[in-house]
Amino acid sequence: MLKIIGATLLVCLCSIGLHAQDSSDVSLFKISGSADMYFRSDWNNPKHITYNNFTSFTQSQNSFELGMASVKLEHAIGKVGMIADLGFGKRAEEFSYNDTRSGVAIKQLLITYAPSSKLKFTAGSFATHIGYELVDAYLNRNYSMSYMFSFGPFFHTGLKADFLLGKKNTLMVGIANQSDLKSASVLPKMVIAQFATTSGDDKLKAWINFQGGKTNDSGRLYQGDLVLNYTLSESLSLGYNGTLQSRETKISGKWESPRMWYGSALYINSDVRQWLGFTLRGEYFNDQKNVLGFGTDIFETTLSANFKIDNLTIIPEIRFESAGTKMYSSHNENMVNKTGNFLVAVVYHF
Hints:
This protein is mainly beta. 7% of the residues lie in helices and 58% in strands. Mean pLDDT is 92; it is low at 4-8 and 10-21.
């Protein structure tokens, strides 16, 4: 089935790529970038090298840390285009954790071809369509990341096609390496898909996301994901992300019962002034089946302020977590089931 999908996409791409380029096409070039850094302090004040932090990009305690510097190059002419998105620093290294840990990462590298206004092909490595949050700090209102982002996919490498289904609906289907692998020569490929729709008044937007397939001869992975955005007014909006990932293992020729982890998060976004906004994230994360090694459920609540000065955003943030088991370290070296931290980040983009 995966081979049929991949072959079909390639045949479509080749057959419609025989048209000559219009000599009147205009070449467009864009360069953009960002940089971020932060300070984080855990209120449990653990004495040893433990951060009480199990999500991405904020693995530190009482330390000033560099996040990531990014440079994104985009070029388009006529129906074709290219994006090269490079990241430098610890955040980039964690994002591309399967690559050589050099502090430099290719976040995205892709080529696009849009034969019509209703169809676009993308080949290369691109950020995942799954989830609410994004790797670039300036695109998130919370600086610390959710559990769902941290343990969902970061990116995919493969071939996808985007279809415009009328004015309000879009469909993406593709075939890719397994999540977060830029090279996977001997591994099975995964199907990725997304259906997106918008209400008639444009206030409600929804994305239904999927990835699934064999991970090897004795493993399968399937993930469904839902993202919602609802605009109540110019200064108030809601976001929602729910995800469920199922994993199956074949033992002695028989597929065992699936083991699942799942999560759900609500985002309340308020912009009280043009230069000041707040976001409250409440997340429930369940790994009681011990798929990811937690063996428990976790509640986290994060309140972030966004102070904007031109292209600079200052993000002071407080975060509280509570788990079903004692998984956090305290200052007296005991294990406890609660923790909290304060973080302040500065983010610049152009």
